[in-house]
UniProtKB/TrEMBL annotation:
This is Glucose-1-phosphate cytidylyltransferase. The gene is rfbF. One of its GO terms (molecular function) is glucose-1-phosphate cytidylyltransferase activity. The keyword Nucleotidyltransferase applies. Keywords: Nucleotidyltransferase, Transferase.
Length: 258
């Protein structure tokens, strides 16, 4: 079952970083957030990736084309250009990655439609290249199969726009920066889809979040997998800082690999 990841948006709300690189290449620790997302799926056994490229997509291509050599010690013969690996540098030998140019200004649904010709299976996984979570992908897939709908979306609790104070007798007992709320559910990505959804995408300017998802809901073909655990997107500079702080403190909930 392949994992399709949207990697083509411009990420204008994170322009401090995305002026120079595509948002999926913005780092958490010393690795791009895209790598973290792929490692999450790989930890559940899903290692066949289809990356929908767009804005500065050549940087993502270069990253993976040179991935093997960047992760290990090498000896280079400048005359013959022969490269010899001196060490084993990574654990991703079983990954396969299709790097698909889906256009500079294509909408999210349009990118999925363009990538559809590389998706041979009836069921596939689909997500955004800018968010991490501790979603149990195995349970998500099982839930999708039980519901037998065209699509399953992972529903998550949104984060508050403001820091939250816990107060007792006029004294603050705790402060939480942008905690998750208990008010409603939002689209957290991490979809499981049947290829029938391609029929709901009209053209390259179709936003996946608009008509396709709305029509699936109207048809009764959109199951929701409710995830009460950790979820965080990287839309702003502050959210990038939050994710990096969690990683640096070894408190990243999405990390389930060694």
């Amino acid at each position: 079952m392949p994992v399709v990841i949207l990697c083509g948006g411009r990420g204008t709300r994170l322009k401090e970083e995305t002026e120079w690189r595509p948002k999926p290449m913005v780092k958490i620790g010393d690795r791009p957030i895209l790598w973290h997302i792929m490692k999450l799926y790989a930890s559940w056994g899903f290692t066949d990736f289809i990356l929908c490229l767009g804005y500065k997509g050549e940087m993502i291509k270069d990253y993976f084309l040179n991935y093997d050599l960047k992760q290990c010690d090498i000896r280079l013969d400048l005359g013959s250009k022969r490269v010899e690996k001196l060490s084993e540098g990574h654990q991703e030998d079983n990954w396969t990655i299709s790097l698909i140019d889906t256009g500079q200004d294509t909408a999210t649904g349009g990118r999925l439609k363009i990538a559809s010709k590389y998706i041979k299976q009836d069921t596939f996984l689909f997500t955004y290249g800018d968010g991490v979570a501790n979603v149990d992908i195995g349970k998500l897939v099982k839930y999708h199969r039980q519901k037998q709908k065209w699509a399953t979306v992972t529903a998550v609790r949104p984060s508050s726009r403001y820091g939250e104070l816990a107060i007792a007798d006029g004294i603050a007992e705790a402060f939480s920066e942008k905690p998750q709320t208990n008010e409603g559910w939002i689209n957290g990505g991490f979809f499981v889809l049947n290829r029938k959804v391609f029929d709901l995408i009209d053209d390259e300017q179709t936003n996946w979040e608009n008509e396709p998802l709305q029509r699936l809901a109207q048809m009764g073909q959109l199951a929701t997998y409710q995830h009460d655990g950790f979820w965080q997107c990287m839309d702003t500079y502050r959210e990038m800082e939050i994710l990096n702080e969690l990683w640096e403190r070894d408190r990243a909930p999405w990390r389930r690999w060694e």
